[in-house]
């Protein structure tokens, strides 16, 4: 029996790194992780989606969409949600071999 690594499977099913399909897949995966982090932090703080929505000035349905990655959100909305949950945010942007790191104690 031949064992296949996750990387090999992802290459076969989604596409190799650097292809548009793989870029979309990895972006969606990262957004799913962010949504899950927000949901877990909210639950740990005994907050409902409505409670977090009230803090951000949005409806409960917007929080549900953010947690479940069912809509594209602006980075500002994500940062505001993390801020409301007391999270520490570190943002790294890489562009043409230049790197910008923004640390924000939120």
Structure description:
- This protein has a single domain, classed as lambda repressor-like DNA-binding domains (434 Repressor (Amino-terminal Domain), Orthogonal Bundle).
- It is 56% helix and 13% strand.
- The protein is built from five helices and two strands.
- The protein has helices spanning 6-13, 20-44, 49-56, 60-67, 75-84, and strands at residues 89-95, 98-104.
- A hairpin with a 2-residue loop joins β1 (89-95) and β2.
- The longest helix has 25 residues, at 20-44.
- The chain is elongated.
Question: Any descriptors?
Answer:
106 residues, alpha+beta, elongated
Concise summary:
The protein is an alpha+beta fold. 56% of the residues lie in helices and 13% in strands. A two-stranded antiparallel sheet has the order 1-2.
Give the H and E element order.
HHHHHEE
Q: Any idea what the CATH architecture is? A: Orthogonal Bundle
Q: Over the alpha carbons, how many angstroms does the gyration radius reach? A: 17 Å
Multimeric organization: single chain
Helix content: 55-70%
Give the total of beta strands: 2
What secondary-structure arrangement, pairings included, does this model have?
Elements: H1 6-13, H2 20-44, H3 49-56, H4 60-67, H5 75-84, E1 89-95, E2 98-104
Antiparallel strand pairs: 1-2
Helix pairs in contact: 3-4
């Amino acid at each position: 029996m031949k064992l296949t690594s996750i990387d090999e499977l992802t290459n076969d099913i989604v596409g190799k790194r650097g292809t548009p399909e793989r870029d979309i897949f990895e972006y969606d995966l990262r957004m799913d992780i962010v949504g899950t982090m927000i949901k877990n932090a909210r639950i740990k703080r005994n907050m409902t989606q409505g409670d977090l929505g009230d803090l951000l000035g949005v409806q409960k349905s917007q929080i549900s969409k953010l947690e479940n990655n069912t809509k594209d959100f602006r980075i500002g909305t994500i940062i505001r949600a993390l801020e409301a949950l007391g999270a520490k945010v570190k943002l790294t942007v890489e562009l043409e071999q230049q790197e910008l790191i923004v640390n924000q104690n939120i």
